[in-house]
Amino acid sequence: MSEGTPSPYEWAGGDEAFQRLTAVFYGHVRKDPVLAPVFAHMDDEHPAHVATFLAEVFGGPARYSAEHGGHDHMARMHLGRHITEEQRRRWVSLLMDSADEAGLPADPEFRAVFSYYIEWGTRMAIVYSGDDPPPTAGPMPTWDWGQTPPWRPGG
Ligand code: HEM
């Protein structure tokens, strides 16, 4: 990545943007017939924790790792929940709607990077949600621009 290119986290608008996103998202989740039962016992802090996690994935401060147990803790939170493909799809769909509603950048590059992690992350959540997931989830995933850096006209 060329020097001075903002991380996807910065491009999105930093912590505030991710907090806005998850506040909107879990508002929808609570009312969704497929997902409401899955999240019936969710902690009030859950949306904020997921925002902190996503912020770290996209290049923000490593606060979920430092304060909330990191990737292994996140993975363990899914253990035994047996997430179905229908639930996963709805989770992705509501999150993408929420990205629009929360005013996250809508440029093709940011949304490509965002969707890339979300597709991987939700499919991994299914893996973690089995009775016998891998013993460790591995290091915290980090997503950078990859094939689609911010597009600059003429650049
Ligand atoms: C990219 C995808 C995902 C990410 C980044 C993610 C992130 C997280 C995190 C960080 C936690 C722990 C929160 C904490 O530390 O308090 C968590 C818990 C949880 N996740 Fe996920 N998750 C993802 C996908 C899913 C999916 C697809 C489902 C189900 C459809 C799901 C269901 C849950 C549930 C039920 C909990 C426990 C909530 C509670 O009772 O407090 N997650 N998730």
TrEMBL record:
- Which InterPro entries does its entry note? Globin-like_sf, Globin/Proto, Hemoglobin_trunc
Q: Which UniProt keywords apply?
A: Heme, Iron, Metal-binding, Transport
Q: Which Gene3D superfamilies match?
A: Globins
Tell me which domain of life the UniProt entry assigns to the organism this sequence originates from: Bacteria
* CDD domains to which the protein is assigned, alphabetical: TrHb2_O-like
Keyword Heme listed? The answer is yes
Query: One Pfam family name from the record?
Result: Bac_globin
- Provide the residue span(s) of the region labelled Disordered: 135-155
Protein name, UniProt field: Group II truncated hemoglobin
- Which species does the entry assign this protein to? Streptomyces synnematoformans
